[in-house]
Amino acid sequence: MKICVFDTETTSLDKPFCYNVGYVVIDTEDWSTLCARSYVVEQVWHNLPLFQSAYYAEKRPQYVAAMRARTTIMDKFGYICRQMSKDFRNFEVEIAFAFNSSFDEKVFNFNCDWYKCNNPFDTVPIKDIRGFVHHFIVNDEYKKYCDDNSYYTESGNYSTTAETVFRFLFNDDFVEAHTALNDAEIEAQILKQCVVYGANLKEEYKAFRSVEREEEKTLHIKTAEQVDYYFDYRKIRINKGKTEITLR
To answer: DSSP secondary structure string, the chain?
Structure first.
């Protein structure tokens, strides 16, 4: 079947004005790329204070170079959505995929509402590549790779970003570009590898909030009678005022 893998770059998380859209249309029979497009959103590009509020605003010269080379096109968000819808129809795209798709879906919902344009994903379902990753790539070998390289989240769990997963699968030295088309292309490779490992693109695989990492720690409790207790534990959770401890 034909699928789309897409990515967005935005100015913020709360009001995600989109300044870069990239996507590839792929034939899953041989994983050939039928279409690849990269856009800079005109309305945000020309609003310099808004663009400069983006986390990756320093990449502006890269977009200038890409537009001069005609590998990226600048256009209004509404036109970009119309072109996506046209590509979806022409290539008969059945499903769209994105890494952490809930955010990218939010981006299109927000911007389509803001600019009063039709959402190309109104008729094309979106699936989260992270769900495929969590079910088909994250295993003991992956966790050991993260442990060996200290690839953890801020909360100390295992990292499952596209960059970390791509490093594990293909290239230890890979650095994510954080431009929409480049990211969509590497995320398509990750999705393909999930299929190699047995994933069915038509199935729904739930993405976990995080992949927990167990750490050995010691819990120290001092009673009112000044008695000290020490417990070695692997997990501790605090939920609704209750503390749950898993002892070794």
So the answer is: -EEEEEEEEES-SSS--EEEEEEEEEETTTTEEEEEEEEEEHHHHT-HHHHHTSTTGGGHHHHHHHHHTTSSEEE-HHHHHHHHHHHHHHTTEEEEEETTHHHHHHHHHHHHHHHT---GGGSS-EEEHHHHHHHHT-SHHHHHHHHHHT-B-TTSSB---HHHHHHHHT-TT-----SHHHHHHHHHHHHHHHHHTT--TTS--PPPS-B-----EEEEEE-TT--EEEEEEEEEEEETTEEEEEE-
pLDDT tens profile 144-183: 999 999 999 998 899 999 999 999 999 888 988 899 999 9
pTM (two decimals): 0.86
